[in-house]
Amino acid sequence: MRLSPGSLAVPILTVWLLAPWTRGDDPKPPVKMTAQEDHKRMMELLGIKELRRGADGNPKSERAANLDESKANPYLDLPDPLTLKNGKKVTTAEAWTNERRPEIVEDFDREVYGRVPKDTPKVKWEVTSTEKQSVGEVPVVTKKLVGRVDNSTYPLVTVDIQLTLTTPAGAKGPVPVMMEFGFNFGGKGPAPKAGAPPSWQQQVLAKGWGYAIIVPTSVQADNGAGLTSGIIGLCNKGQPRKPDDWGALRAWAWGASRALDYFKTDKDVDAKRVGIEGLSRYGKAAIVTMAYDERFAIGFIGSSGAGGAKLHRRDYGEKVENVASSGEYHWMAGNYLKYAGPLTAKDLPVDAHELVALCAPRPVFISVGSLQVEGGWVDARGMFMAGAEAGRVYELLGKKGLGTSEFPKQETALTDGDVAFRQHAGGHTTGPNWPTFLTFAERYFK
């Protein structure tokens, strides 16, 4: 039978043909699991029956973290950042850049931080507000931005990156910017208490620079239950991770890189002079950002501890077993769990000194608080040792390392080289080290 163009049978037939295709193409909802369930799933995927328990932060516990320096270095041999896997020594900058550096990145990707998918979705930045303010006595312009991540491949997960950018209102051109992994306080930061020293934001502005705050949890949740949402869940279409998929630290670093993409388009920012700063878990994210994205000019790494600038092979404070637990494993690749059972930290193909070395030749400032106030959990000496060992790579590239392997007295600033270190007398904060860092950074941001 021939149907006339005006027949109702045509649209009815069309709907009948399209409907099954539409229904069949509906995406599956994200898998929902608790962190403990996902952690157990990853252990089963790796064939691990049991993980060793981590250290306890309570000094009175039977499993208290070791704070005895005589017992802190059970594994004395660190992987050599200047020896290729075939045993050949690296003696030139070209060999480091073209051969050894890619080997180290591959090991970190596979075993420690996880791989970023080759095709991550694009981010479209939107300035949601522009406000003239004063921070202290400095007139500024603060932009609030949202980075809308393209979720057309999986509409059930939405990722909107939160970012604020504050620059001096009277700047005559683009300015350097320090970006912090932190919380969005409308750009100003919390008001300093009466009689307190200037906030870090005020100190940055006093140099004529700007600052930005990116909210990492707007990129990826800080828990294992969130691994099927956020940017990781979006890229995996709501499915659980594979053992070498990226964890939250790489996801947060990816978000910072997308913010830097935006800065390259903003006439108020000198995108070649953008630094990254973070504290604690965000200190870990800051050193990972510096290591992987060579566009960042400088890093201010605050009390980053295990998984950051602290040597994994140190038994002092937090250990690999702590980071591999169900409360922290989401920061890392699933493969990292292997090193809490049956393997050990000694079996890791890389260590934190090589993470610092990946930042070379760009400057890095390692910050930590005092043993008496902050405590030993983050292992000040372990971070210092990583910085000192990384110096060999800096020197190969024509730069200067820490200049010493002797752990300095508290409040001694080692800032003559391109790797810097200072242990302040305060607690779990970068606050007391901001003045020293800014003096250090001024050498590069002039």
Automatic annotation (TrEMBL):
Pfam families per UniProt: GCE_fung
Record's keyword terms, sorted: Hydrolase, Serine esterase, Signal
All residue ranges annotated as the 4-O-methyl-glucuronoyl methylesterase-like domain in the record: 245-398
Molecular functions per Gene Ontology: carboxylic ester hydrolase activity
TM ranges: none
EC number: 3.1.1.-
The UniProt record lists the keyword Signal: yes
The keyword Lipoprotein belongs to this UniProt entry's keyword annotation: no
Amino acid composition bias (Basic and acidic residues), ranges on this chain: 51-71
InterPro entries per record: AB_hydrolase_fold, GCE-like_dom
Region of interest (Disordered), residue spans: 51-74
Protein name: 4-O-methyl-glucuronoyl methylesterase
The organism of origin for this protein: Frigoriglobus tundricola
